[in-house]
Structure formats: structure tokens, C-alpha cells
Write a structure and sequence with these properties.
The protein is α/β, with parallel strands linked by helices. It is built from 14 helices and 13 strands. Helix 8 runs antiparallel to helix 9 and helix 9 runs parallel beside helix 14.
């Protein structure tokens, strides 16, 4: 990959990157406006639980493994550079745990990737339930920007901005009184984004893409990325076009509609999860190359299929890697003009 050096620098553990970053210590109690609720943090958490892979990985990137009581809701393996620290953190569940399983870890803070985990109809529990036990909860600002997402993926009215991710990193680092680490992590992600923009921004004006996360059934309607999510951001940076125009985060789209648009490139999500029909990327590729209609698409016939970490298709710390992956692939396909 063209961006390996930059990625390698960012992959260094945060404790190795913080020697030159200084920030004022957090003054407690700290109050943060989070998803329309005031979250009050009386002191730096010592037994945090991450609900959602991205929330957990941010905490690990901030060097907080020793201040975590558990994690849950995983889609892919932990980032390799975080594997050792992740081994120190109790895995409550790979999927969605129940309220009792989380409370059994005696947490003093909950970091949730999605409102569906802790919202009014939270699949794990509600924010009020945790608050009643004296446990503050924090929801990723990337999900706060989505509407109608209490029980589903919802819709995003405005294009996702990395500023929402930077807000999340900054706020979590202040909550844990490690703001210097947050600033350094943000600076490194920004540097990676700037490097991609300088190299390939707006060079894919003739390219159309579709991002396939998964499907309930392999040959049935597929969950494709809507126009304003993390995949939309990637497409916007490249100056390309997402053939899906829906504001829904993950609309179900029929293959007839996709075939009618005949995208230049098909991006397929890779993951370890196996609870939906098309979670396995090998299954996706087999369908693309054997279905009598889909196999005739230009992207399939020309081999313009990109495998990308499914987590990068959601607004996460992996989205920057997704941008690098798609940019490098388009370059290798000779599609950047």
C-alpha cells in the first residue's frame, strides 16, 4: 500500500507517541453535552466498559487498557497494534451483552459506539438504568449525528465529517485525563488524511462506487452504504460518486438497482462476524462472480473489487484506513485521472 509509512507511524502505541504532547489536566467534575444529555464525570474512570468495537479501540489507542473492566460488540479482530493491550481487557461478549453481564463487571463508565446499545430502547440497557447505578454513559458523537437510530441504523442528513471522530477522541481523552494522548492521536489521523488528499483528492471524478457491508441472504437485497456515512466521506474525498443516494446509513438495496447503475468499483466489507448471510467476504466474492446478472457488471468483469475492513465503512478510527485502502486500489486499477 502506498501509505504504509504513515500508517506505521500511527500504529505505534500511544504511550510511545506522547512525549511531546502536553495538555492541561482535566478539572473534575467534568460536564459534557453528549447526544443531548449532560454527562457529569466526577473523577477519571478506572473501570470503563466499551460497548462497540470502535469505542473500545479508541480507549485502547489512548493507552487505557489498565482502566477498562470489559468490552463487547465486536465485528472484526482488534487492530494488530492493540492486540497485546486488548488481551488485558475482559471480553464480556462478542455480540450484544445483557445489562446484567455488563453490571457484573462493576463499571464506573460506559463508552458506547451506537445509541442502539444504551438509548431509550437500549439493547444492553438504557442510559438511565446505568445512571441509576451511578454509572455515567457516553455515546459516540458520530452516532449522535444520526436520526431515527434508537433501534436501527437510522439516517444521516449531513455528510459525515471526521471532526465528529476527533470530537469523540478529544472528549474521551479529557474524561480520562489523558488529553495529551488524544491530541496526538487526532494529529496523526489528520496527517494521514492530508497525505491522501494531497495525493488523490478529486482524481476519481469518473469513478462510481458501491459499498457492500453484508446481506441477510446472499442473493437478496444487500446492505449498501448510504451517501452520507463514512463511506460517503471516503467517496467525497476521492471526488467519486456513490451510486446509492439514500440518506439511510445502511439501506437494503436490490441487485437489479445496482446493476442498472453499473458501478465502476465494488467495495466489499471484510469481518469476522458470521450472523448474516453475506458476512463472509469469500461468500460475497463468489456471488459477484457467479450470479448471472451481477457477474456481468463492469466492476466484476474488470476485477475492480476492493476488500475493505467493514469497520472502516462505519464512522470509526478505521475509516482513515478505509480511505487509504480505496485510494490505493483505485490507483492500482488506473482509475485516478
Amino acid at each position: 500500500m502506498k501509505y504504509g509509512l504513515i500508517a506505521a507511524l500511527v500504529a505505534l502505541p500511544l504511550r510511545a507517541l506522547t512525549s511531546t504532547a502536553f495538555a492541561a489536566p482535566t478539572a473534575y467534575p467534568l460536564t459534557i453535552d453528549n447526544c443531548g444529555s449532560n454527562v457529569v464525570i466526577e473523577k477519571a474512570p478506572q473501570k470503563a466498559v466499551g460497548l462497540g468495537q470502535n469505542s473500545t479501540e479508541i480507549l485502547l489507542m489512548l493507552g487505557l487498557a489498565d482502566r477498562m473492566a470489559g468490552s463487547a460488540i465486536w465485528v472484526s479482530p482488534v487492530l494488530p497494534e492493540l492486540a497485546a493491550d486488548n488481551q488485558q481487557v475482559h471480553r464480556i461478549a462478542n455480540s450484544t451483552p445483557n445489562f446484567e453481564a455488563v453490571v457484573a463487571r462493576d463499571p464506573d463508565f460506559i463508552a458506547a459506539q451506537f445509541l442502539t446499545s444504551v438509548g431509550p430502547q437500549g439493547r444492553v440497557g438504557t442510559r438511565q438504568q446505568f445512571a441509576d447505578l451511578g454509572v455515567p454513559s457516553y455515546v459516540s458523537p458520530t452516532d449522535c449525528a444520526v436520526t431515527d437510530n434508537a433501534v436501527s441504523d437510522g439516517s444521516r442528513k449531513k455528510m459525515f465529517s471526521m471532526d465528529l471522530l476527533y470530537q469523540e477522541i478529544g472528549e474521551l481523552s479529557r474524561i480520562f485525563d489523558v488529553a495529551d494522548r488524544g491530541e496526538k492521536l487526532i494529529a496523526n489521523i489528520k496527517a494521514r488524511e492530508a497525505a491522501v488528499r494531497a495525493r488523490v483528492a478529486d482524481k476519481a471524478k469518473d469513478v462510481s462506487l458501491v459499498y457492500w457491508f453484508s446481506s441477510p441472504e446472499v442473493a437478496g437485497d444487500a446492505w449498501m452504504a448510504g451517501k452520507n456515512g463514512a463511506s460517503g466521506y471516503i467517496t467525497q474525498v476521492l471526488g467519486a460518486k456513490n451510486i446509492v443516494s439514500s440518506e439511510q446509513e445502511w439501506p437494503l438495496v436490490g441487485w437489479e438497482a445496482i446493476a442498472a447503475e453499473n458501478p465502476t468499483v465494488i467495495v466489499i466489507g471484510t469481518m469476522d462476524r458470521r450472523n448474516q448471510g453475506a458476512d463472509d467476504p469469500a461468500v460475497k466474492k463468489q456471488f459477484l462472480t457467479t450470479d448471472p446478472v451481477v457477474s456481468k457488471l463492469d466492476a466484476v468483469e474488470k476485477g475492480h473489487i476492493v476488500e475493505m475492513d467493514a469497520q472502516a465503512m462505519n464512522p470509526t478510527v478505521r475509516t482513515i484506513t478505509g480511505l487509504e485502502t480505496v485510494a490505493a486500489s483505485l490507483e492500482s486499477f488506473g482509475l485516478l485521472k
